[in-house]
Design a protein that fits this description.
single chain; 1 helix
């Protein structure tokens, strides 16, 4: 059974940093494109970054240059380094299989990890 488990969320002040991790199991992680999707309070899901099986990365403009995505296929783990955090980055963050929101809706999701950015 495929499983994705996120960790690393929490509370941070504006300008701070967090690193999210997503441990994958039950499927051939290295062959899948992976995404991070977030859902802010009262809003719909928002795709923010993906990395394909070859290591190529793509970003939503609002997080480009602040949230590098990476993967370690030997450890079956996906990462999102979150720098220069802003209050508007407050959301539940999910790792998913797929390269886009429509693609991810057909794939696997983790349970999410909450990120709160406030002073």
């Amino acid at each position: 059974e495929a499983q994705l488990v996120e960790s690393g969320g929490g509370w941070v002040q504006p300008g701070g940093s967090l690193r999210l991790s997503c441990a994958a199991s039950g499927f051939t992680f290295g062959t899948y494109a992976m995404s991070w999707i977030r859902r802010a309070p009262g809003k719909g899901p928002e795709w923010i970054a993906n990395i394909n099986s070859g290591g190529n990365t793509y970003y939503k403009q609002s997080v480009k240059d602040r949230f590098p995505i990476s993967r370690d296929n030997a450890k079956n783990t996906l990462y999102l380094r979150m720098n220069s955090l802003k209050p508007e980055d407050t959301a539940d963050y999910y790792c998913t299989t797929g390269s886009s929101l429509p693609d991810s809706l057909r794939g696997y999701w983790g349970q999410g990890t909450q990120v709160t950015v406030s002073s």
